[in-house]
Amino acid sequence: MKQLQDALALYATNAGLFPICSSEVVIGSAGDTCLTPALMSSQATQGRVPTDPLGATTGTCGVVDSYVYCYQSVNGFTYTIRYALETDTILGKTIGWHTVTP
User: Fold this and answer.
1) CA distance linking residue 52 with residue 61, whole number of Å
2) Whole-number Cα distances in Å, 64 to 50, 60, 83
3) Beta-ladder partners of 80
4) pTM of full prediction above 0.85
5) Contacts of 20 (CB under 8 A, 6+ apart)
């Protein structure tokens, strides 16, 4: 999540806004026509946009046992990233879906 947030911060520093995706997208999937292309073309990432190591780009946002990263920014001023954890071994986190914002 930190790598993704850093890439978004760099993008926003250069572009003035976060990439706008009015509908939630699975990051890196074929349906992600807004976030991944924006980050890649701006060179805000190190060659690829981070995806979930278990699900990568195959899955559905918010569904149990679907391990993907999901992104939405309606206005470019803020964003929401959602991700699922399959373990509760991370201090302060539980199994299931979590949300990150700037």
Assistant:
1) 12
2) 21, 9, 11
3) 72
4) yes
5) 34, 73, 74, 75, 76
Question: Tens digit of pLDDT per residue, the chain (102 long)?
Answer: 899 999 999 999 999 999 999 999 999 998 899 999 999 999 888 778 888 888 677 889 999 888 899 999 999 999 999 999 888 888 888 999 999 999
Write the burial class of residue 65 (CB in 10 Å: 0-12 exposed, 13-18 middle, 19+ buried).
Answer: exposed
Q: Which element (helix H / strand E) includes 54?
A: none
What does the block give as tokens for 30? 């074929």
| Angle between helices 2-15 and 35-42 in degrees, nearest 10 | 70
Distances (CA, A) of 70 to 15, 26, 38, 50, 78: 21, 5, 15, 11, 14
Nearest alpha-carbon partner for 5 in 13, 55, 67, 96: 13
